[in-house]
Amino acid sequence: MQTTRVTRRRARLPLAAVLAFVVAVTTACGGGAGGADGSKSFTLADGAQNLSAFNAPYDVFAKDGYWKDAGLEVTPQFTQGGTQSAQLVASGKADISVVGLSSALQVAAQSPNLKIVGITGGNIWKMAVPEGSDVQSLDDLKGKTIGVQALNTGMYLYNRAALEIDGVDPDEDVKWLPIGTGAQAAAALDSGEVDAFATYYGPYEVVAGLTKEPMRLLPTPLDELDGSGAWIVNAKVLKEDRESVVELMRGMSKTAIWAQENPEAIIQALWDEDPATKPRGQSDEEAMAATVELVANYWGQVINAGGDGMYGVLSDEAVKKAVDFHFDKGIVEGTFDIAKSVDLSVSRDADEYDKAEVEAEAEAEAAKQ
């Protein structure tokens, strides 16, 4: 990894404030401690707040499959979002997490105790409009009102950056209106209270399933930017047990293959563990088809192999481009040293296994379904 150093404005939250906040959160940290059966225990901070099809690849499938097979006992700990998850990892209150790259960069810029060991390719951030809207591009949003969950979210920060890149002043040319998510957001779109929805894969599919009129995604310059998500680990855990961290990433790499070849197996594992997550009022076939469609776009970005075919690995050039974008557009503030905070060699080492064998297993299981 190159030693490019990125320096921008002072971070919004001083590290002392971050750690003081984290101390108040009661989360047990495994830190690779040994279990009664000889397994090593890890706490995975998950900002999704609850179990769903979106986090099933790691919170269920890898946890009960590849990680368990490797002797790793991983316990998900739900939090209030990616930034809080990253703060917990930096403080040692959690061991690992997968978060949006912006959260990883923000906390890593403030703490040397957080290391980024994997970065996923693709872009999840999107701008959506009703299918019948005359808006065909971001430029057409001039003079329009854009709905967003809240003005302190990644949805807002990333989409205003996309507007700026396309020559639209995000402060002067458009109006922003917090509309929440789910039914509330759908109602704002149906009523015409907002003309567009600044969102990302996941909430987009949910809202699009609730609006009276189908939704349509607009082209965005962010589609040319890699770095939707990041796997992060506590620096002490990485130093003391790098081998286990590599196994964690290897388990995710294998799971990524299943997400592409046999997503139904991951969803079925979720339903077996938590039947309440299965859609109601539908046949098994209908529920499975609807859930696969719901997560397809999101999984396609954050549960995929990078440009080099390795899960969690981007080129040095792509990493620098992603980091520069976040700081240049004000999405993240502070001082960040790529060489000190990013170690994708973990994910590269995790790629050393027989992919053809895993693909065959996934395909064979799919044939039985």
Q: What does the model show?
A:
The structure is a single chain. The N terminus is likely disordered. The protein has 369 residues and is of the alpha/beta class. The longest helix is centred in the C-terminal third of the chain and has 20 residues. Helix 1 packs across helix 4 and helix 10 crosses helix 16. It folds into two domains: 259 residues, Periplasmic binding protein-like II (D-Maltodextrin-Binding Protein, domain 2); 100 residues, Periplasmic binding protein-like II (D-Maltodextrin-Binding Protein, domain 2), CATH 3.40.190. 44% of the residues lie in helices and 17% in strands. It is built from 16 helices and 13 strands.
Count of folded domains: 2
Helix content: 40-55%
Radius of gyration: 20 Å
Low-confidence stretches: 1-28
Strand count, sense and barrel status of the largest sheet are: 6 strands, mixed
Mean pLDDT: 89
Number of helices: 16
How many beta-strand runs?
13
Coarse shape: globular
CATH topology of the largest domain: D-Maltodextrin-Binding Protein, domain 2
Q: Structural class from helices and strands?
A: alpha/beta
Order of helices and strands: EHEEHHEHEHEEEHEHEHEEHHHHHEHHH
- CATH homology-level superfamily of the largest domain: Periplasmic binding protein-like II
Give the second-level CATH assignment, the architecture of the largest domain: 3-Layer(aba) Sandwich
Give keywords.
about 375 residues; alpha/beta; D-Maltodextrin-Binding Protein, domain 2; 2 domains; 6-stranded mixed beta sheet; 5-stranded mixed beta sheet; 16 helices; 13 strands; globular
